[in-house]
Amino acid sequence: MRLIQVRTFLDIEEGKRIDPDAIVLKDLVDEELAQIKYGILSHCWGHPKEEVQYKEMDALIRMGGTARKKLRERSGYQKIRRSCEQAWKDGLAWLWVDTCCINKESSAELSEALNSMFRWYEDSERCYVYLHDLHAKALPTTSNEKKFSGTSGWPRWFSRGWTLQELVAPTVVHFFNQDWHFIGDKKNHAQTISSITRIPSRILRHGLDAHRHSAAQIMSWAADRKTTRTEDRAYSLMGLFGVHMPMLYGEGKDAFRRLQLEIIRMTNDHSIFAWDRKDNGWSGSVLADDPSFFRACHDIVNMEPDEYLAALRGVVPEKVLSDFNEESIRTYTVTNAGIRIRLPLQRCRGSQSVFEARLACCRSFDSSPISIVLVSFKSTYHRYFGQSQTIHGATATFQLLYLVCQEDKRQKDFTFKVDDRALEYEGFICRCAFPKRASLNSGDNSITLSYTNHCAVIVYANSETGTCFALAVGYCSGYEWLHVIPDTPAQQFFDVRQTTTDPWDTYAKRVYDRAWVVSPKHAPRVARARTPGVTRLHYEEDGPHLVKHAHLPKSIRGVQLVYQRLPQPNTCLVTMDITRCAGCCVSPDAWQTLDGVGTFFCRRDLMSILS
């Protein structure tokens, strides 16, 4: 750890004669650090040109008068000066400031510093928090968006990622305003700081060891905090969890996934899986993308194995619970197939692949275990967000699962090219697509779905017969799916003969919500049908042909849907037609395979011949 010698710095600042062999910065090993007391600065970085870097501080004694004068004009230099003055008043001969005490040109030194920073703040005698944007002589007690815009109405320091550990780790934290007036300390203002940060006041007063905090709860404190670099949202939390990782700037959000995996390797904390998100659909990983997904986890606490098993009574058969080994709850591992864990699963209505899993954690006000919804595909399980309901009276059984924890980055977008020309012959017109961000490309009548836009629906209606149906397409976790929803009673909501946009958009939104519910059972079916070796599966040069039929209510006709994977990466062709039902419709959920191109003949082929 490299520290500023406070007296040497102040002597230079005061123009006193300095020994030529004196140094401003000194490296100390752990044994030496144990013998001294030091102060530490916590602040928000200003513009990089304003901050004092390591090389400049190291050369301060040798610096000429003109260069030193320019250096003094910087706001970053003044922060160091005022910090040193305060430290000297408090009887501290050493001070650490992140801007100038780390040689950031050395990646090894930077990595060591970031991995050690929590401990450095924890071991400090006093932490000085400088609130550069606060003029008042007291900590604010109410949010003020006018004064502190862009930071939720509080001083900017409370919104930064790195300052979270700088608040929690030190025992003594003193706050100073813009003019370096002392305005309070952490313990005496714990309640006010708690209302700003959502950190429980008992932790602010007594430290992390004073409370049985969960991983999800700690993550929630960082939910709204920001960092300049994406990776720092993860790196700034390492100390709070007691984990260490190499710094890999450039990895982006993978840093936060690595952090969660390190936490899993070191603890048996199920709350790491208790995060939530606003939008529906599948998640490519059971790990969250960033701390914001834990925003609502501030009151989640861990459950001891005996508490957990007791809470499962009535859901898991008593005999299973009595024979269950508690150690299997305490241990789970990260493997190349995913996170290997044993959880009680209870099947949800409407699908053989959607389950509710109960975790060994709960809300502080409720002893019921928190549930998450999982979707199975082959031997792995994904997180699912959407409407789900367990089967009444069904029991849960403990199963050994592999939870997907690595997203397939090779598959970012997927394009559905829709050939719906044949529908016009039966009077069906495309009314709208939903959501708007997934609108049809007029050039090739295609829809492209992405990581942030998983699903879309296209609504077709026949104004003469008053019937309509929707084509739902989706792409999540590397699996594409498509399905016709023909039994939507649009006429109950409005006259399907209307051609105005708004009623159809409202109707499309209702269908869209339904599509999310059915997505878990349709994605695996398309993938399984495309798997080589399936009976009667025929591969053309540009991919297999799959077909399914959906009956239109109160009609002798149905929608025929043909799927074909194209040579272009992540692209398929969807062909639709209205056909007469043969009298016994195949299940609308079942895909059938074609023996060859000649097996399927529709108006699209006729148009090609005539042209």
Overview of this protein structure:
- Helix content is about 25%, strand content about 25%.
- It is of the alpha+beta class.
- Helix 1 packs across helix 5 (about 75-90).
- It starts with a strand and ends with a helix.
- The model is unreliable at about 535-540 and about 595-610 (pLDDT under 50).
Give me a quick take on this structure:
The protein is an alpha+beta fold. It is built from 19 helices and 27 strands. The strands form five sheets. Strands 2-1-4-3-5-6-7 form a seven-stranded mixed sheet. Strands 8, 10, 11, 12, 14, 15 and 16 form a seven-stranded antiparallel sheet that branches.
Strands, total number: 27
Helix content: 25-40%
What strand order characterises the main sheet?
2-1-4-3-5-6-7
Contiguous helical run count: 19
- Radius of gyration from the CA trace? 31 Å
The major sheet is characterized as: 7 strands, mixed
Strand percentage, roughly? 15-25%
First and last CA, distance = 79 Å
> What low-confidence regions span 5 or more consecutive residues with pLDDT below 50?
533-541, 596-611
Mean pLDDT: 86
Structural class based on helices, strands and sheet pairing: alpha+beta
The outline comes out as elongated
Topology:
Elements: E1 2-5, H1 6-13, E2 25-27, H2 30-33, E3 38-42, H3 54-58, H4 65-72, H5 75-89, E4 94-96, H6 98-101, H7 107-123, E5 126-130, H8 163-168, E6 173-176, E7 182-185, H9 190-197, H10 201-206, H11 215-221, H12 232-235, H13 238-241, H14 254-266, E8 281-283, E9 300-302, H15 305-311, H16 318-323, H17 327-330, E10 333-335, E11 338-347, E12 354-358, E13 361-363, E14 371-377, E15 380-385, E16 397-403, E17 414-419, E18 428-434, E19 446-449, E20 455-462, E21 467-476, E22 479-485, H18 501-529, E23 539-540, E24 543-551, E25 557-565, E26 571-580, E27 592-593, H19 603-610
Parallel strand pairs: 3-4, 3-5, 5-6, 17-26
Antiparallel strand pairs: 1-2, 1-4, 6-7, 8-15, 9-13, 10-11, 11-12, 11-16, 12-14, 14-15, 17-19, 18-20, 20-21, 21-22, 23-24, 24-25, 24-27, 25-26
Helix pairs in contact: 1-5
